Every structure is written in C-alpha cells, then in structure tokens.
Amino acid sequence: MNTSQKIADSPNMETPHFSKNQWRTFYYNNERVILGTVGVVLLLAIWETIARLNIVDMMFTSSPVRIWNAGIQYVASEGFVHDIAASGSELLLGFGLSILVGIPLGILMGWYPKLNYLCDPIFNFLYASPRIALVPLFIIWFGIDMGSKVAVIFLSSVFPIVINTLMGVKTIDPMLLNVARSYNAKDRQIFKTIILPSSVPAIISGIRLGLGHALIGVVVGEMTAATQGVGHMMFTAGQTFQTDLVFVGLIIIAGLGVILTGLVQILERHFDKWRVDIRK
C-alpha cells in the first residue's frame, strides 16, 4: 500500500472543505492580489498567443517564453554578475549620496527662509533641466567611469528628497513650535523633539520617490557612457536587435524597483502615524 492509499484509507484524515461563504470571504480579503494576478496572466497569455501566431515581427518584439529563455541564459552568464555589481554599486553610491545631501539641505531650506530664497533659483534651474542633457558635462568632468553615472543618479534622485523634506518642515503644526518657544526651548531642542520627528514621514516619502528617479538615472547613465551594467546591456542588445535581452534588462530594473520601493513603503507605514493630519 503506497502513501496516497494510506492517506485515503485513514479514518482520521478529513479532506478540508470550504463553504461558499469561506471562499467568498477569502476572495474579498485577497481581491486585489487575485485580480492583479489574473490580469498579469491574461496579458502574458495574449502576448504569447500573438507571438506564436506571427501576428507581429519577432525582430521588433518578443514573447514571454523567449524572454524567459533569454533571462535564464543571461543570469547563467558571467556578464550578469558584473552588470549587477556595476549597476548596484552605482545606485548605492548615487542614491546614498542624494540621501546624505538631500535631507540636511531640505531641513535647512525649510527651517531658514533666507537660505530657501538663496538656493531657490539654482534649485529650480537644476530641477527643470533634463538630466540627460547634463550627461555630456558629467562625462567631461568625471569621465566614462563610475563617477559620471553616480552624478546622474545623484542629480536625478536628490530633488524629490529635498522637496519632500522641505515641505515636511514647513507643514509642522505652528502650535507645537509656539508651545516649545513659550517654555524657552532652544533651537537644538526644538529640532530634536519637534522638527525631526514631524518631518520623518515626509522624508521617507521623498526617499521613496527619489528611489524611482535613481533607477531611471542608472539606466540613463549606463546607456550613454558605460562599459558594463544592466543599462549598458540593454543599450547593446537594442543596437543588435536582441529584443529578448532588452526586456530582460527592463524586468531586472523594474523588479529591483518594486522590491526596494516595497521595503521603503514598509518603513513609511511604520512612521505614518507621525504624519501631521492637515485636515484637523
């Protein structure tokens, strides 16, 4: 008697049974995930069907199965490790530098209006400038090595962090500041007990927005001047009509963005209770 027969013949083993109400409850509790999964599966099925029927030219598009196979070959290759290491280190340096510079600068610009007036024109000029238009300057200044890519990532991600931090400081409840000043609290005490805790939710929101811009900066920087990295791989694959590899690079960048954004959102939800409700 095999294992399945023993389980079937066992008198104490009961087959789990879900009633309609339990299935309905399960569906409504997980409706977002279920419908999202169904939508993705439908899209992939339609895409694969169109590809197999040769409705579109495979030179200009691809199919889920072809992308999957290309992804396996790319991950198994030696270039994958080098590309991930190069893109990861550039993202870490550029985005980390934007956090280190953006948060203190946003707090100072929000707390000292004169500094805000002084920096505002320069800030607006750089914020309005297309990042890709500055790439030639970065190549002249930093070369085609990591420095130019780090500069692009930094400039792409620092503005959302500064703007959100600045607005977080500006929207602090004035009553809290008046109460602290009425007790002769010093600026350092006000900063530690009111400004910084009240600004944390806005700062984390800025970091989450800056992360998306940083990933765009990785691709832009590596597509214009690089010898390795996921963006460089996508650019090279596009030039040689390897559409499957272009999609693989896109999925890697998007997947990395989803994972990192999810981690920051967990942190954001943790500090969301510190957010000042402006509707009160």
Structure, explained:
With 280 residues, this protein is an all-alpha fold. 80% of the residues lie in helices and 0% in strands. It is built from twelve helices and no strands. Helix 7 packs across helix 8 (146-170). The model has no long low-confidence stretch (mean pLDDT 83).
Helix content: over 70%
* Largest sheet entry: none
* Unreliably modeled segments: none
* Alpha-beta classification: mainly alpha
Give a quick summary of the entry.
The chain is an all-alpha fold.
Main traits of this protein?
mainly alpha
Task: Produce the secondary structure layout.
Layout: H1 3-9, H2 20-29, H3 31-52, H4 64-76, H5 78-111, H6 113-128, H7 131-142, H8 146-170, H9 174-182, H10 187-224, H11 230-239, H12 243-271
Helix pairs in contact: 4-12, 5-6, 5-8, 5-10, 5-11, 7-8, 8-10, 10-11, 10-12, 11-12
